[in-house]
Amino acid sequence: MKTAPVLLFIVTALVASAVEQPVATSMPQTAMPACCQKETASAPFSKDSIYQLDGRFTDDSGKPFALNSLRGRPVVLDMFFASCGYACPLTVTDMLALQQRLPAELREATAFVLVSFDVARDTPEALAKYRAQRQLGNNWILLHGDDNSVRELAALLGVQYHETADGAFSHSNQITILNREGEIVHERKGLQGGLDEAALALVRGGK
Amino acid sequence: MKSISSFLCGTLLALGFMAGPVLSGGEIPRAAAPHPNEMILIPAGIYVPFSLGPQDAKQEPVAAFLLDDYPVTNGEFLTFLRANPKWQRSQISRLFADSSYLQNWRADLEPGPSAPLDSPVVHVSWFAARAFAHWAGKRLPTMAEWELAASAGYTQPDGNNDPAFKRDLYDWFARPVPAVLPAITTTRANYYGVHGLHGLVWEWVDDFNSAMISSLDPNLLCAAGATEVKDTGDYAAFMRRALRSSLQANNTTSALGFRCARDLKLSTASVP
Asked: How much of chain B exceeds pLDDT 90, in percent?
């Protein structure tokens, strides 16, 4: 994609200013545990894979994170902001409940990903604090991105959002389930119910 | 102000040619005389959102920016497609454009009679519009920027006080979309000198997915509780908001095109 060098530059600049280490040339870390690495790693993405987007983010430890490094794992994805006082905490609670419903093997393989709308305030440090507060495990990935990456990911997922004057965000409430190829296999819209369907989609998509 | 904007645009256009992949008229076969594809300076202003939530600001300041004189044409889009094959109709992923993408074109690199080179390109998705803009070293305008530029009438910055402008605007709404869109040069310039913001096609904005009236169910949408409309008589703004809120980023329609914008700050910073 034409935007990739620009995005990379922006993300690199953000990261370079956020952490005191030379990360400019390092490759984005892979989020894939050894158990799940497959021979498909270098094959082209499927026509329905959201990993074609080449979204680049920073995780809550300050490391660059390529969205497509999630390939090979089932993914539960939610866009949120850390200071949200109403919907986002409920959605995260539901994601935790969903995690509990999964068979142990699938639970370990699945990545639970939170991507923040709040580009200004949800720095990696703020996200790390959020992780601690909500006691999120190692298979949770909290991502900060620049305006462009966040807007594109939201558009791809069909998530609408809008910053209000008081610094909060109006936004769609939606949990997206991706299969190992990054194809959208299920969406839980709204704030209630639907966890069984989401779990089922993960079981199917995790194959 | 007019003269300043012409001067700036001339300078910036020249810079654009040096900076990178800007269209050169010679590459595009044109039936009609090529139009000058300039960017127009839109001075800083205040955007008053059409629809407000309880926490929304009543108005939003917009910094001065540059906006394309005309919507992007089929001819310009063809040049983009030649340089970026993955955006051609047969190559594109359904994620980035639905099945009606460029459906009025004859073939991948052949606009044909239904898509004249000097007519605005339509049946393009938000992703495709954005990709074009990045390739051209530009970006899509934000909703606030677009609305600010488009609120101008023919003779003054507030189109509400311009009866001829309002009449033409609503006449356009009343007409069905023609099978073949007219050339961009058929449109009249607004107060700033921008052509075709109304009267030809609707246009994508970068943050189209911040317009949310399709999902007012508070269960589906955080903070959907209350909305408030600034001026119920502003039918045109209502229509645009309704359209944006109903769109997905891969949607394409027969009356939806785009134009590009650019930050003034970044561009002028490189003026010697």
From this structure: 57
